[in-house]
Amino acid sequence: MNVVLLGPPGAGKGTQAVKLARTLGLLHLSSGDILRAERQAKTQLGRQAQDFMDRGVLVPDDVILTMMMDHISRPEASGGFLLDGFPRTVAQAEGLDERLARKGARIDIVANMVVEDADVTRRLTGRWSCPVDGRIYHEIYSPPKAAGRCDDCGAALSRRKDDEPDVVRQRLRTYHEETEPLEAYYKARGVLESIDASGTVEEVTDSLQRVCRAR
After folding, report:
1. Are strands 109-114 and 127-129 parallel, antiparallel or unpaired?
2. Active site members
3. Topology annotation, domain 3-115+177-213
4. E strand or H helix at 73, and its extent?
5. Tens of pLDDT, residues 20-62
6. What CA–CA distance (Å, rounded) separates 138 from 160?
7. Are strands 136-138 and 127-129 parallel, antiparallel or unpaired?
8. What is the mean pLDDT of residues 66-76?
C-alpha cells in the first residue's frame, strides 16, 4: 500500500505519519527529513537543492521529485511507503503519478487530515520550547508549572519563528493556495479519504488506521 498524508500545518501529520507507517508496515518518507539529510550528506541532489535555497528561491519540482523517487525506488520501500509533506502542489502530484506509473505503481490512498484554521492557529501559536533541553510546552494543552519557564531547568521558554502568529497566517494562506487543490485532484482519482483531525492523537490515529485498512 502506498499512502499520502495530507493536511495543513499543525494538523499533526508528523506524529501520525510515524504511528501509521509503523502500524501498516510502510516506509515513512518525510520530504523535510529527506531534504535535510541530502543537504547534510552533500549529495548531488542535496547540493542542487541547497543552491536554490541559498538564493532564496523555491526548490524546483523536478529536483524534489527526483529526490523523493530515489527513496521510493529503494528496496526498503518495496513493501509500501507513506509520504509525509509531499506532494505539496498539483504539479508535484502529477509528476509523482507519472513516475510511479512508469514503475507499475500508484498512490492507493490519500488520507486528508481536516482541521479548521482557528484550531491550527491555536495549536501552533501556543507552542513554546526550552532552548536548553528542547522540551515542548503548550499554553493550553501542556503548560509549564511556572509561566514562561522550563519545568526541568528553569530556562526562559521561546517560540519558534514558524509559530509566530503572522507566520502561521502566511503558512495557512500558502497551504490553501498551493496544497489544498490536491484534495480535488486526488478526489477525481478516487483515492481521497478525509478524516476529522481535531480530536485527540489516539482518536485521529484510530480514524486513519480505519480508512487505510478499508482500502
Report:
1. unpaired
2. 13, 88, 127, 160, 171
3. Rossmann fold (3.40.50)
4. none
5. 999 999 999 998 888 888 888 888 888 888 887 777 666 788 9
6. 12
7. antiparallel
8. 94
Q: For residue 111, how many C-alpha atoms fall within 13 Å in the half-sphere facing its CB?
A: 31
Q: Is 182 helix (H, G, I), strand (E, B) or coil?
A: helix
Domain residue spans of the chain: 3-115+177-213
44 burial class (0-12, 13-18, 19+ CB within 10 angstroms)? exposed
Q: Locate cell 531534504: which residue? A: 35
Q: What is the pTM of this model?
A: 0.86
Residues 6+ apart with CB under 8 A from 36: none
82, 33 Cβ separation under 8 angstroms: no
Q: How many CA atoms lie within 13 A of 152 on its CB side?
A: 9
Identify which of 1, 4, 14 has the alpha carbon closest to the alpha carbon of residue 204. Answer: 14
156-183: pLDDT as tens digits: 999 988 889 998 999 899 899 999 999 9
pLDDT at position 57: 65
